[in-house]
Amino acid sequence: MAEDPLIRVRGLVKSFQGVRALDGVDFEVARGEVVVVIGQSGSGKSTLIRCLNGLVEPDDGEILVGGTAVDTHSQREWRLLRQRIGMVFQDYSLFPHLTVLRNITLAPIRTGRASPAEAEALARELLARVLLPEKADAYPGELSGGQQQRVAIARALAMRPEVMLFDEPTSALDPETIQEVLDLMRSLARDGMTMVIVSHEMGFAREVADRVVFIDRGRVVETGPPVAIFRDAREERTRAFLAKIL
Amino acid sequence: MQLLLDNAHVFLGGIIQTFQLAVATLACATVVAVLIGVTSVLPFAWARLVALCYVEIFRDIPLLVTMLFVYFGAPLLGVPLSPYWAALISLTLWGGANGAEIVRGGINAVPRHQTVSAVALGLKRWEIFRYIVLPQALLPIVPPFTGLFSNLVQATTLASLVGVTEFFRIGNIIVERTTIQEGHSPAFLVYGFVLLTYFVICSLLTGLSRRLERSLQNRGGRVVRVAVKPTESV
Ligand SMILES: Nc1ncnc2c1ncn2[C@@H]1O[C@H](COP(=O)(O)OP(=O)(O)O)[C@@H](O)[C@H]1O
Ligand SMILES: [Mg+2]
Fold it and tell me: pLDDT tens digits, residue range A151-172?
């Protein structure tokens, strides 16, 4: 029997004031898979990815994590799930009043995932991994955008999540710091981390994605391996989008 | 000058009374301000309504009216209050309402994405409030709160009207007594002295708050603008 997908979503619907942001989305992510979600601005990418960790409550549809259906209305259930689902936002949102180290250790300690000593050891390990070992005692305001985003990734990794969600992690960065963040995500992909990435970096998508999902007006239009999507998309809408962006 | 020295012990008694009243007022008003301010951002509509009513009522009634109402109203309820307690309670009600508005402004000034990223880390609501929102709300609260403290210290002079023998009232008494006994009024001298004393106390408060602000900033704080109406003067 094939393993259940880590995340499976069926018939997801979400409206904001009558506007359908998600219009019946089916979507799944296998363990170890890297899925890149592409689509125009306003097509529903953020809404979809936010549904996957309960930040947005869908109006209809079901979400299964590890084969178990989630009660999408229960914030308590989501809170526990979020300890297994890491998320990185566009605006990196580190906590400005806490040192880098404390940013990373706060959640593991508070949620009981690690003792303070374990959390600190892990945080230092992760800071080395994101190539910022000397910044443990710095405050976020002293770091560049790219450095802050790498710390935000380390902060999410410190929960030892089973899957990482990225919502346009490089869109708010200066061009010269985009690469360092993409490099880090590449290395996570190589290590077998399950990832869902919303991105406009098509070169990066082609390189790291196991599968690309193209979304338009709240629907999944087409999905497939990057070669198939980027070279010969079946749908006219996909080709039109790619022609515009590439 | 001799007059001030002669009455040093009387003035001292007044200063101590003022000081006691001010310290008690600041402490009580701060507690009320934090409680009501936090209530006003709770995710329950009824809690916000209670906080809103409290704030609106006590900000909109002149402090002096509240004070007279408490002092003369309490005996009707069967709990006669000493002037000191009537003053303390009404100052606390008024300061608490104005302080709550400042606390609410500080909390609301913390950007929404801070809460969202804390939620995404799996933290509980109270943990997010305690570790993420409150520390960031503190810094922008300090300057307007100092202003409020300053207003409250000044407002303790109103307590003289219900008969608390605080510093200002002592000044009053000495002026009157001297005028009657010696036939000339030392009002300018005495009130000048009173004025200077309040000025020194409030300046000290401001100085202290600057230091607090700096130390918060040094610990990674960040200045965020708070949108609070300035506290109306008394
Ligand atoms: N919190 C919200 N309130 C109202 N409308 C929203 C909200 N979030 C998203 N939308 C709307 O839903 C649609 C999809 O938005 P979004 O998922 O952010 O798209 P994308 O991330 O692909 O740019 C847009 O029309 C957007 O205006
Ligand atoms: Mg988006």
Answer: 999 999 999 999 999 999 999 9
Determine the atom of ligand 1 nearest the C-alpha atom of A44.
17
Instruction: Name residues whose C-beta falls within 8 Å of residue B29's C-beta, 6 or more positions apart in sequence.
Output: B91, B92, B94, B95, B96, B99, B148, B152
Tokens of B68: 């007279």
How would DSSP label each residue in B177-198? HHHHHHSS--HHHHHHHHHHHH
Q: Whose CA is nearest to atom 1 of ligand 1?
A: A16
For B118, name the nearest residue in chain A, comparing CA atoms only.
A107
Domain that holds residue B147: 2-232
| pTM of the predicted model as reported, rounded to 2 decimal places | 0.83
Q: Whole-number mean pLDDT of chain B?
A: 86
When divided into structural domains, chain B yields a total of 1
ipTM: 0.92
CATH of the domain at B58: 1.10.3720.10
**Model confidence at B17: pLDDT above 90:** no
β-bridge mates for residue A22, sequence order? A14
Cβ atoms of residues A243 and A231 within 8 Å: no
Give percent of chain B with pLDDT exceeding 90.
Answer: 41
Q: Report the chain A residue with the minimal C-alpha distance to residue B137.
A: A97
Alpha-carbon separation of residue B162 from A224, B10, B85 (angstroms): 81, 19, 10
Instruction: Please state the φ and ψ torsions of residue A214, each to the nearest 5 degrees.
Output: -100, 125
Minimum distance, in Å, between the CA of residue A208 and any CA atom of chain B:
25
* H or E segment to which residue A86 belongs: strand A85-88
Asked whether the beta carbons of residue B220 and residue A80 sit closer than 8 angstroms, the reply is no
